Amino acid sequence: MQTSRRQAARTESPVSRRNFIKYGILTAAAVVAPPPVLSAPAPSRQSFRELMFYNLHTHEHLSVCYRRNGQYDPSALRKINYILRDHRSGEIKPIDARLLDLLHTLSGRLGAESPYHIISGYRSPATNTRLRRNSKGVASRSLHMKGKAIDIRVPGVSLSALRNAAVKMGRGGVGYYPKSDFVHVDTGRVRYW
User: Fold this and answer.
1) What dihedral do alpha carbons 185, 149, 45, 162 form, nearest 10°?
2) Strand pairing partners for 173?
3) In this predicted model, what pLDDT tens digit does every residue of 93-112 receive, in sequence order?
4) Which domains are assigned to the chain?
5) How far is the C-alpha of 62 from the C-alpha of 114, rounded, in Å?
6) In order along the chain (193 residues), what is the average pLDDT of each group of 10 residues?
């Protein structure tokens, strides 16, 4: 009678001793060595940095991933240097990577999906001198001549919102030109006008 009760208990129990041990080993193995799918890091927005530009003077568009996993892409940087060239002289100079990172961060803060409309990127010294003759707002030692400044607007984002977001970042100069419909940002010292 005692034996039949033990057998009945074994058949009524959904987990046998053998299954209990088997599941215990599998659980321990999963904890010690999780499958690769579970351990792979999720791709982050910071792994890939993209920018979109539209040059108002040349009507060129560019959408490019300029930085991957902490490394700047030389081919992408050449494309950016080209679209941000001095459209008056055709002269091309390297654009400061910190300016690109600033634009990337600014775009994220704005939640903008539109490209940056370029009013002025790199400016040759000759172009800068010519512009100074016609405008008091052009600095003699403009950071545009070093590839460290850009004048922009973003469709769908008010100029004041663009300026305010850039100012809050505190990562360089920010100039506000509502009559000319653009905001200047640069990687120089922090200052506002």
Assistant:
1) 20
2) 191
3) 999 999 999 999 999 999 98
4) 2-39 (no CATH), 47-192 (3.30.1380)
5) 12
6) 50 53 52 42 66 98 97 98 97 98 97 94 93 81 95 97 98 96 97 95
